[in-house]
Fold this protein.
Amino acid sequence: MAKSWKTLVNGLWNGNPTFRLLIGLCPVLAVTTRAVNGIGMGLATTFVIVCSSVLISLLRKVIPDKVRIPAYIIVIATFVTIVDLVMNAYLPDLHQVLGLFIPLIVVNCIVLGRAEAFASKNGVFASMLDGIGMGLGFTWALTVIGAIRELLGSGTVFGLKVVADGATTIGVMSLPPGAFITLGILMGIMNMISARQKKRAN
Amino acid sequence: MSESVRMVVVLSVIAMVSAAVLAVVYGKTSVIIEENAARALESSVLEVLPGTATVNIIRREQNPLREEDPKEMREKEQKTTIIYQGVDAQGRIIGYAFVGEGNGYGGAIRVLVGVDESTDQVINLKILNHSETPGLGSRVEEEGFRNQFVGKTAQDPIAVNQDINAISGATISSRAVADAVRTALKDTVELYRGGE
């Protein structure tokens, strides 16, 4: 039980794909102009990670080692296409914004990375927990970056106006450099918290 | 079973299952996706035909087919033009709108053109989608450029360097929009009037 819990929370902090592993940064930098985009992209990726991790874990003894990468890619691409179609049908506004980045989930290194590093070596239940943890870790990272950039760049959070009318916003935060700045500062804060915890433990 | 045979079999089975699943999902969602696109287009019609309350959709065959037409020609010519007719709250026809397409720098540019019912003059146009360079070709969306087309009829040349000024640094994109408006205007006005 303790082990399962550890697997689940690994992705949230210690093994956070965005802040600790620094993989899958392309969507992190590109879609996080708004908090809502971050949640949408994060949850879409979570769905793909969980589904493909479970399926790959189920098939791990059937798939021959030499063709494992193409097999994983087919599984992942199938789930991504499902997300793309379903989102286009039921959430057209969000799809319009995320449009280009949804198909790119296929080559997001988090998904293939978890398939290769975890799901192909562990059981179905553990792989599912790992997928959920990693996906939610990715989601909260994207949402926090999105919220900060939205607040500073356009003066809103989740589309709600929070700064006074006429207040100056920092335009660069909505542009790609703003994503790098936010990501760097957040990583620094996380490292600081971890370092402090370690010191206290000693 | 030898290893190489197993590799082929496993990959093929995975690919087949994937194809089957996607076919089912596509079948379920494609209808809704098309409906969404139609609704989005309808709201664009309201923009190019101000005052519109309801939109009538008229389908016109561009070239009525005859029995003796060869098969290849039938496939090529079997094209339905969709015309969106804007009607205001009193039931008067304001005008009609249609989609034109031109080849831009980064791909096709699709333009919705709104035309006045009584004068056949362009009222407004809207760029539906494009993949031009941001900051250069994407400026065809700007009002200053689009306003040059207002008041044009099918008799006008509607060509860059004649009655349309191209955006500097974006000649190809400007030309694509002019082409789209010119050809669509010529074809559709004829089609629309011819059917009455």
User: Anything to note?
Assistant: The beta strands of chain A are 156-157, 160-161. The interface with chain B takes residues 59, 62-64, 66-67, 70-71, 74-75, 77-78, 81-82, 85-86, 88-90, 92 of chain A (CB under 8 Å). The CA atoms of residues 32 and 146 of chain A lie 4 Å apart. The radius of gyration of chain A is 18 Å.
